[in-house]
Write a sequence for this structure.
């Protein structure tokens, strides 16, 4: 059976939610308890130490905790509940067999999202595969922990990378540990509930779990200086601490206003990833809920929630803000005036440097309506970039942006929208990018995304606002 060891991971600069954590100790008096804190983090070397050091350097402690969790469970086994959860019932009856255990994030597991592993028998092979897979992650791709080491990573790992390994994992129904989702869904069935997830990181609600003074058993968590902790972690990874950088100017303010939750990934994710590298401020705006995006599920509210989660995953991969205007999928034409008013107010408030939107000649009615609304709302105040159409149909591009270095990330981002049967879009986006590359460069193997630009009268060419290698179509100019 799983070792009767229980523990919590809590690292970083903040006080722990010890009121919540202590409920697990109280409910399991016969289990050995251990706290994996900053002292533990700096006192050993991990298999994925370089990745841990990179997350720590950037203050992304959730990613550090995920990476620690996988290695601790592989080496020691036991049970590591989330620190931002409250124990309602002891779990002795849950982990009665050898194996690896986790829990779906949403009731029923419809989204495929699951929490990082909760419990394991030491030495489990699936954990070894997970650790090895994360060890191959380039540091440049180590973005939002939610997508690269946590829930989103595990979904991709079991659905795309190693689906055969999923049979070796016990995935408990969501209500077992997550009876209430932060989006509002609540379980009211007969199944036994063992814990309540408090969503501390998602809602910034850790204060509710902290006492006024730290309990003595948690005192080692509070570091005097986090730069010292980070330096120790980097030293164990063989990383020399670089000198402090000069402050950089704020990046360009880039806004996309698109119709559906997966449009940014399909039409321009490669370009947005280049903006991210240039430290631009990215704001992804989606006009519709996407609630009619799958055949035979028209108007389905759970689909809208699923697509919202998919869109959040894409935005997190870019480090971008995300706004959904909340209009009905397929009904933008009937909402023209409200749509125009919403976009006009958004542009006035945000004052972006450039806006990406659909081309006026796009095949999709929602795309055409939105394109016209964006053009009216800008009133020649903001540079516009019209994106390509599906398969390039009817679109006459003016410039191409080389996405050779970001094509893989683009295709992976399209796959995040699993409710849309994304394989067809992955193939279409790849083929179009390669075709546009041939058109722009006259050579094979340099994928491009294509756009048409509309500048602001009296200002310089909007080409200066684009990232990366930008070439007029035909290679001239």
């Amino acid at each position: 059976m799983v070792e009767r060891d229980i523990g919590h991971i809590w690292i970083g600069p903040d006080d722990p939610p010890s009121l919540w954590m202590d409920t697990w100790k109280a409910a399991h008096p016969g289990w050995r308890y251990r706290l994996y804190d900053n002292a533990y983090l700096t006192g050993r070397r991990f298999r994925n130490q370089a990745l841990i050091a990179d997350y720590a350097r950037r203050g992304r402690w959730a990613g550090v905790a995920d990476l620690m969790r996988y290695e601790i469970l592989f080496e020691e086994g036991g049970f590591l509940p989330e620190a931002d959860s409250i124990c309602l019932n002891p779990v002795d009856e849950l982990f009665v067999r050898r194996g690896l255990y986790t829990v779906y994030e949403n009731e029923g597991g419809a989204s495929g999202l699951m929490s990082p592993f909760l419990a394991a028998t030491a030495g489990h092979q699936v954990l070894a595969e997970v650790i090895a897979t994360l060890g191959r992650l380039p540091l440049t791709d180590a973005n939002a922990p939610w997508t690269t080491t946590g829930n989103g990573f595990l979904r991709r790992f079991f659905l795309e990378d190693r689906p055969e390994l999923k049979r070796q994992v016990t995935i408990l129904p969501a209500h077992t540990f997550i009876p209430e989702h932060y989006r509002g869904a609540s379980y009211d069935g007969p199944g036994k509930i063992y814990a309540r997830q408090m969503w501390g990181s998602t809602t910034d609600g850790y204060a509710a779990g902290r006492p006024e003074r730290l309990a003595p058993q948690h005192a080692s968590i509070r570091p005097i200086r986090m730069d010292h902790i980070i330096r120790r972690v980097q030293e164990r990874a063989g990383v020399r601490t670089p000198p402090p950088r000069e402050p950089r100017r704020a990046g360009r303010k880039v806004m996309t206003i698109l119709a559906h939750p997966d449009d940014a990934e399909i039409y321009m994710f490669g370009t947005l990833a280049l903006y991210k590298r240039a430290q631009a401020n990215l704001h992804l705006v989606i006009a519709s809920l996407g609630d009619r995006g799958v055949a035979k599920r028209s108007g389905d509210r759970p689909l809208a929630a699923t697509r919202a989660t998919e869109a959040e995953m894409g935005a997190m991969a870019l480090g971008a803000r995300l706004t959904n205007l909340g209009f009905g999928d397929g009904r933008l034409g009937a909402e023209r005036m409200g749509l125009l008013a919403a976009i006009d107010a958004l542009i006035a408030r945000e004052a972006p440097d450039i806006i990406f939107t659909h081309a006026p000649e796009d095949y999709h009615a929602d795309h055409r309506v939105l394109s016209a609304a964006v053009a009216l709302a800008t009133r020649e105040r903001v540079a516009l970039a019209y994106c390509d159409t599906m398969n390039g149909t009817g679109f006459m591009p003016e410039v191409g942006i080389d996405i050779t270095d970001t094509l893989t990330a683009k295709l992976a981002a399209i796959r995040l929208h699993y409710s849309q049967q994304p394989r067809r879009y992955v193939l279409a986006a790849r083929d179009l990018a390669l075709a546009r590359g041939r058109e722009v460069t006259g050579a094979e193997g340099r994928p491009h995304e294509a756009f048409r630009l509309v500048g602001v009268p009296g200002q310089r060419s909007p080409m200066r606002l684009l990232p990366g290698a930008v070439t007029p179509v035909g290679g001239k100019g």
Notes: The domain at 5-236 is CATH 3.90.550 (Spore Coat Polysaccharide Biosynthesis Protein SpsA; Chain A). The chain has 15 helices and 16 strands. The longest strand covers residues 281-288. Residues 213-224, 243-249, 296-301 have pLDDT under 50 and may be disordered.
